[in-house]
Structures are given as structure tokens and as C-alpha cells.
């Protein structure tokens, strides 16, 4: 339930709180064959018939590669203080090996300079799912070598931008990269091998550790290195032992598999036992867990909706309602005994329930999991069926209410003692939404894909006012 939009006391955030928006390279840049860039796994996947809605690709996307100056000017006009973007690995290091292509790095140098000139803090994500295709051809994330290639790439980008960018994120949502990419196959590279997905998860963890060391070897000590996790907020359908066990299994597979080694230097024993039928974990080599558990400067959290599970009915043939796309193959290895349930109430265009309490719960979990480590919300937002009105304006009151409710949850967490230092709305622009193509609009800024015209929605104006004042406006105040 959303709280009242008109509280007696205004909801005000700490003065240093960062108000930002986020994007990723393949979703917005386009220019996939320019300046030395070679295909990523998402180029290959999106050009494979039947893999994306309408056969859509990121070939042009929203043409940010050529329109970045206008997009930065728009961010400045809205009053944003920070911008989280990702670097396209195959634009910088086309084969995933060897020297950088300076033309590719120059784009990001120009973008960072433009942001800084506009008074907007850049935050760089090194990996938002666009693995160079040549590395996938060599085995991809299930292969250990890919982690070492990532560290080399991290060092290249750190050397190029580390003098001007202070906030760094190694990986975005490694859960999606491992389990949607290699288990259910609804994301690139589209493989359906649960054992490979678990290997991929470990090598993504290793990449984070190696990449963190590589970044710190070439950057000023003031810079912050973090990772963006989309740990599920898992809720059992009931308090029966069977449902509680189901929730523990999914919690291990979505969160413990990453924050276990990253924060605590160990995989949960319950995870190892639950997945023993799929893998023996022999690819975890001596020294790996120490390498993964690097001191971390911040934890970034992505949240959209909670997950409700129970023990599966042996006779049930219902589709898996986990919100992660349709596939005959599960993204949850060794969890066929778990059923997923759609919570009641309001939903977004993705079919995801609107529940800000889950964001508060997630923040407080990591406040306890990693005491003393600053937190950022690196993604939060919603897709709605946005359309321009007769006057050309785009009103999206549902998104305004969504943002208001979730930002209130962030503020409650701060009041409860959590050190949350910033919030990045997903997304700045309507864009290529992975397997959903251009059907789902998450942007605060409407994009007419034919003309590439940008139109700030009501939510962008509302959020911009919040960013400028540090106080949540009334939800009807979007002009």
C-alpha cells in the first residue's frame, strides 16, 4: 500500500543525498558498428529470430551515442545531481582482449566531461550484460578465463576515467547475467544449462574481486568501488516449514550466492547443499573466496518488486510466476520444488506488484548484512503504458505515485538508521528493454522511437523538483 501523498510533515532528504537517473549502454547507445565496436552477446541474441519482442534490437536504440550532449542538457534542466551509465565492453575492447580502442574510450571521456561541466556526478558501471561475443564463443561466464579478461578491461577503463569519475560499479545484477543468460535463456546468450549458470555466478563473483583490485591499482584512493545486486525480497506464502524452506532456497540463489562470498568470504552452506544435484562446486579454487571478498566501499541495490514463494504442489502445472520472462527452463537451479505466486494489488506493465515495503526491507537487510557500508539505490522504477496527449505532453501519474511511495520507503530506512546516500531512478529514458524490445517503457523521459524526440513525462518533472529541493513534492505537483 502506498502511503498518503499529503503528509503533515514534508518528506525531506539529507542535504548530501544524491538524486540520479540510470541507463545502460546497449539499451540506449545505438551506433553498434561505429568506431571499432564489435558485437556483444546482446547484438547476437537480439538478431536471433524469436528472442526479442517484435524482433527488436539495440542497433539504434535511442541514439544516445550521437545525442549524448542533448541528453546531458536534459538531465541538467531537470536538476539531476548524478547519472549512472554503463560502458560498452565491446566498444572499448572489441574482442574482450588486448589493447583498447581509443575511439571507444573517447566517447566515454566526452560523456564524462559533458556531465562534469553540467554539474552532474558520473557513476560508471563496467558490466551491464554486454559481454563481447568473442568471449562468449570461448565459453563466456561459465569459463574462469572470462573473469581475468574482465579485470583487464576494468583496468583499461579505470585508467581512462578514474581521474574524473569517483563512483564505480563493477557488475550490474550478476544474478540476471548468470541465471537469465545461462539457465532460463531469456537473456543473452540464451543458454539453458543450470550447471553452467552456477559456474557463471562464481566467475562473475571472481570478476568482481579481480576487477576491484584492478580498478584500485590505477585510480585515486578517494574513488568508491561497489557492485549492484538485485537480491530478491523473498516472502514465504505461509509460515509452514515447507514454505520457509522454499523461501530460503530462493533467497540463497538470488542473494546469498553473491553477497555470501563478496561480504563474508563464503557461499551459504544451505546453497551448496540445495544445488548438490546440479554441481559439485569444484570450480571454486583455493584462494577464490579471499579474492572475491575485497573491501567494498558501497553496496548498490536494485529493487522493483518482492517475490512470493511456497513449496510446489506436486500436481501443479501452473506457469512459473517469478516475473523473469517465459521459458520452459527455470532460472532457479535445483528449485523445481518451489512455486512462485503473484501478490494481489496494483501491478506495473511488467506484471510486477507495486510494494514499497519491499524496498525498505531490502535496505534494512543490507544495513544489517554489511554494517558501516554505505548503500545506494542504483535502480528503482516502473514500466507503464505511456502515451503523449493531444498537446504532446506525457502524463504518467502511476509512475509519480510509484516513485513517491518508494522514495518514502528510502527515507524511512534512513530514519531507521540505514546509511543510504543516493537514489538512481530507472530509467532516464524509454529504451530497449532487453527481451521485451521497445514494448515496455521505464523512462521518466518519453522517447518517440521514430523521430528520437525526447519529452519529459510528469514523473521527470516531479522527480526533478525533488532533486532540486531534496523534498518530495505533492504527487499532483508535476508541472
Automatic annotation (TrEMBL):
Region annotated Disordered sits at: 315-334
Uppermost EC category:
hydrolase
Q: Does the keyword Ubl conjugation apply?
A: no
**Bias (Basic and acidic residues) ranges:** 315-327
Q: Check the record and name the Pfam families matching this protein.
A: Glyco_hydro_1 (PF00232)
An individual GO BP term: cellulose catabolic process
**What name appears for this protein in its UniProt entry?**
Beta-glucosidase
Species assigned in the record? Streptomyces rochei (Streptomyces parvullus)
Q: Species lineage, top-down? A: Bacteria, Bacillati, Actinomycetota, Actinomycetes, Kitasatosporales
